[in-house]
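ping. complex inputs:
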Amino acid sequence: MHQLIERMFASAFRNPILEQMGDGAVATLGGTRLAFTTDSYVVRPLFFPGGDIGSMAVHGTVNDLAMCGARPVLMSSAFIIEEGLPMETLWRVVESMAGAARKAGVEIVTGDTKVVDRGKGDGIFINTAGVGVVAHTLEIGPKQVRSGDAILLSGDIGRHGIAVLSVREGLPFASRIESDSAPLASLVMTLLDAGLEIHCMRDLTRGGLGSALVEIAESARIPIAVEEVTIAVHEEVQGACEILGYDPLYVANEGRFICFVPASEASRALQLMRSHRDGSAASIIGAVHEGARGMVTMTSRLGTRRIVDMLSGEQLPRIC
Amino acid sequence: MHQLIERMFASAFRNPILEQMGDGAVATLGGTRLAFTTDSYVVRPLFFPGGDIGSMAVHGTVNDLAMCGARPVLMSSAFIIEEGLPMETLWRVVESMAGAARKAGVEIVTGDTKVVDRGKGDGIFINTAGVGVVAHTLEIGPKQVRSGDAILLSGDIGRHGIAVLSVREGLPFASRIESDSAPLASLVMTLLDAGLEIHCMRDLTRGGLGSALVEIAESARIPIAVEEVTIAVHEEVQGACEILGYDPLYVANEGRFICFVPASEASRALQLMRSHRDGSAASIIGAVHEGARGMVTMTSRLGTRRIVDMLSGEQLPRIC
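pong. complex structure:
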């Protein structure tokens, strides 16, 4: 259904900026290169270990701007509130948003509130949009990916999805797992300020690492190979996934991204990432190969190779 | 409740741009002066005479940018869709948005889609955000309002509210009234391009003309006097309001605005407005007086004066 809707939008709103198909749009306005992005948040429950809908709504937009190579500057916040929501719940969410915005160095400068009747919403839905400044001249996106590029991953995967699920489904064995929800702009600015030649970045939200790799391979029409052993998964996340029958490759994250750089820049990129507190567990997970087909393969811990497919349907609904 | 929530946001997100309290935020990024705004749309029903949630979501954001004196350039569109929504309904809304964006000269460059379970939404909620370029050096806002300023209204009032209500409540006597939903940017650009010294603009959405006047009078701490006879109300809107017990002064509009200019510019402003197809029914409805109190008074058709109050509570829920 998501694919159908996306094709519908792409055909109706047809324009060159939309067709960049990035996490946000990059355009030049009055001589200034800007990034612009939006996301709605319908996560359930509103509060989970390591975060809540408010901090997530800030991180999500900050991260989409960062993935465009932009420094996040301005944000909007729009709330759709279901009648009967306790004011203290709203206040907790608003305070969390304000704290997350302060930490990420963005200002929430405009907003909107709508109230819908009981039973016509679900507590709180939040939409945030963001504007950032692109201060470099790099083009960053799937079209810039080249054969030979190294692929870096900024940390361990799957924690956000399992943290939300542990509360939603009441899973005691997963209760110590905290969401990775975090702003990525500071780490990305460190890479850009060092003059790193970044070809493409993508944050690993809905659909996880697997879907992000497949999307980029398909957009760039180029094969990608990754090594399972280089992809960090927290022991408790791995355990929870085994019990639940999930593949951590497709579990949602809210503070992780992948980054494509020329092979010659790979070790410098890794060093830069690891020297930053938000990328201390970064690794090089694979590379782009030569070829004309957008296929992702993964070599397992046992040495076997498998094809990484696009997940059909949503593994976990309302995870963000 | 709205006031409470707005105070909550203002205190949590505290920053000088938010405190402008305009229809959008104006900020300078990388040397370019920009306006940035957002709104969510939860109107019920989705389709009504003269418009639908899709065209409205474009007009609303275009108009908020125009009210900042900005030329709308980029827009985002984010959908929260309730499971089970017929795809043809979604397609009608998306096509209407695309058409409205084309007519208003903005490009929808980024977006998002979330699906929520049946009973946790209400068909479609849309959020749009917009970025516009402010090409002049005027400051436009309540703080610029001066005693002596003339107040212009761009057309007749109350049609949007009554049009939506006629469908929602099945009112046959109101069925020929069409919403005034329309983009105002072209008309506003005509005024700005003519070098008109605009002090303040506000579009008359939720709360109508009455609430907009009171908000500006209170923000500017200055008394406003208007003449009822100069405020155009369509005969059928007037009739519907009388039957329903509504005051057209507080009925929502989606394509009308008020504009404050120095008295010396009033007749030129009126001429400019009337020469534009979207302002052909414009009028001068009143003026700003001297004084330190933010009070709005209206002289009725019979010559009596009354105080125009802020409406307590929402006259019509989910009108936008």
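Chain A has two domains: 2-133, 142-308.
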